[in-house]
Every structure is written in structure tokens, then in C-alpha cells.
Amino acid sequence: MFPIDFDKERCKLLLECIEEGRDIVAPAGGWSLPEAMRLAGVLYFDVIAEGPPQYKGIEKYQAAAPEIKEAMAETLREDFKSAQQFYSVLTAMVWDDTYDSLYEEQVQALIQRSDDGTYTVQYVKGEK
């Protein structure tokens, strides 16, 4: 079980900041768990709402049947979760000072989740 503390006005403000390219500033009370989750939710929505990046602007995707688009969206959600978890692993490595032994300053990779729940990382750059 995870607590939810949704604030419509804060959500609207966060969406506006993203859409307008403005800085996202901490609320008056600082970054709390509910505030971090609000931001994570807004950012998740923003990524998912864009649709699969490999099909962005492609007419074939735009014209696809709803069930095909839904299957593509589900794949995007799973890939996004895998990428989000990988970002979290890298962040934890920075926090506990184990990052530098395995990675350069910047890492670029492609991540894909398989049907069995594992994921494969293909590094483009940054792996030592």
C-alpha cells in the first residue's frame, strides 16, 4: 500500500512548467514524499502522453487501429518502467559512491524489458 496525496492546483502548475519550459521549483515546505510523487506522476504522464518515441510523427502510427496503439502504449509503459528503474539504480550507485568504478560521467543506453520481466541494457556510451 502506498499513500496518495494529490493536489490538482500543484499538478496544473507542474504541467504548465513542463509545457512552457519553466523551472520546477520546490514547494514552500520543501520536497516531501507526496510532492516527489506528484512530480513523478506528472513526469510519467508527460512521457506516456507523447506516445512511443520510435513512432513520433509517423503517419502509420497515427492511423493505426486503437488496439494496435494500445499494444504499443503498453510496451511503452513497460519499457518506461524498466528505464525508470535503471535510472534509479544508477542514482543509487552515485549516492553510495559505486558509480565511478563502472561508468563514465554520462551514460547513454537502450533498455528493453522481456516477457519474463528481466531487462536488457545496450550501452551506447559511458560503460567502463
- Outline: globular
Structural class: alpha+beta
The number of helical elements comes to 4
- Major beta sheet summary: 2 strands, antiparallel
Could you tell me how far the N terminus lies from the C terminus, measured between alpha carbons in angstroms? 38 Å
SSE arrangement, N to C: HHHHEE
| Strand composition percent | 15-25%
Strands, count: 2
What number is the mean pLDDT? 88
In angstroms, what is the radius of gyration? 17 Å
Q: Bin the helical content.
A: 40-55%
Outline the low-pLDDT stretches: none
Strand order across the biggest sheet?
Answer: 1-2
SSE inventory with pairings:
Layout: H1 8-20, H2 33-49, H3 59-62, H4 66-95, E1 103-113, E2 119-127
Antiparallel strand pairs: 1-2
What would you say this structure looks like, in words?
The chain has 128 residues and is an alpha+beta fold. Helix content is 50%, strand content 16%. The chain has four helices and two strands. The protein has helices at residues 8-20, 33-49, 59-62, 66-95, and strands at residues 103-113, 119-127. The protein has a two-stranded antiparallel sheet with strand order 1-2. α1 (8-20) packs across α2 (33-49). The protein starts with 7 loop residues before the first helix and ends with a strand. The mean pLDDT is 88.
Q: Keywords for this structure?
A:
alpha+beta, 4 helices, 2 strands, two-stranded antiparallel sheet
